[in-house]
Amino acid sequence: MKVLIKTLGCKVNSYESESIEEDFVNHGYEITDNPSDADVIIINTCTVTNQADAKSRKIIRQLRRENDKACLVVCGCSSEHHKDNIKDLGMDILIGNHGKMEIYNLVQEWNKNHEQIIKFTDMRKVQFENMGIRKMVGKTRGFVKIQDGCNNFCSYCIIPFMRGNIRSKDINDAINEINNLVNDGYQEIVLTGIHTGSYGDGEDYDLTDLIHEISKNDKLKRIRISSIEITELDDKFLKEFKENKKICPHLHVPVQCPNDKILKLMNRKYTLQEYKDKVNVLRSLRDNVNITTDLIVGFPGETDEDFMNIMEECKNIGFSKIHTFPYSKREGTKASIMEQVKDDVKKDRVDKMLRLSDILESKYYQSFIGKELNVLVETDYGLSDNYIKVELDKECKENTFVDVKICEVDGTKVKGIVIK
Prior knowledge:
By secondary structure, the protein is an alpha/beta fold. Helix content is about 35%, strand content about 20%.
């Protein structure tokens, strides 16, 4: 028996798909990339934008056409969002964001009677669905989902409705999973979630406590946080960040829009000055701190003058990379009823912001020419603790650390000479 898993969207989806895959392997299934070979096809969907929804629907139809005999399972954010509109696309099992670890059992149920299964849960009332991974195929860094859900309800975002309330993996379960991965050879662990910095909310522990505990494993060399909000960089975390050198000096801190008028319309919980002040603190605590961000362009109410100001503020903050997204209208959110920016204007602004991102990224990399970095070897490249991807001049063993001297920066490509 063979299973194919197709994943769209974020690192959380990727982790969940890895966990589902491991469950099927433990039950004797083989993994395949060929749809026509698969007995089971699982599509883990995304709904963060309209484009993500469209891509999810396209892949459902495509894989159904390529194999009409396999048990087709659709789960994730887009199925949660559009359960009434996609149930006739030919899937055999349709669930939302809860119950992904029940998929194997649901497939066995479908195998018995071949009747469509549709199963959804109230996402605002669910508990954390425990998943675990012992090995991540083809990866030198171990990703661990420690948190799910969001309570922020930013005016543009549908995800709190699709992912439900904030909830966290039990700290002992998280420590055990991480230690298992580390003891199995993973030297870098990436902590991920929908709202990772809220880990432990409502419990007697938090993200800093988890980081402090897993750092006691001598085999663990690096701890990376997939994303964290500026409001979650409290004094306790900042002290740990300063003193604990296992925490990577790269933080992805979504700004969404460095403009107070737009931040207020977005229902973000900080001002531009508060954001800038906290970034300055981060840079004062460690050397070579790399700050990357997410930014939404063309939010309702954003004028040409606002956008020019936003560009200048991005330069002033000195991001090294700006993950830029055009605002995507999501029905059911407050922003969907605001006055919209025209699509051609959004496209032009996105193009300008992406060009600025490339300039800032190249500038950050160029500051390391002639300097040495310690990188974790992946394939023909290594990744530094501050998230610089360095092309290596010679073949090195995967999952080992080597010192490289940065010799060349070509746009956003960095090349290094292996020293040892």
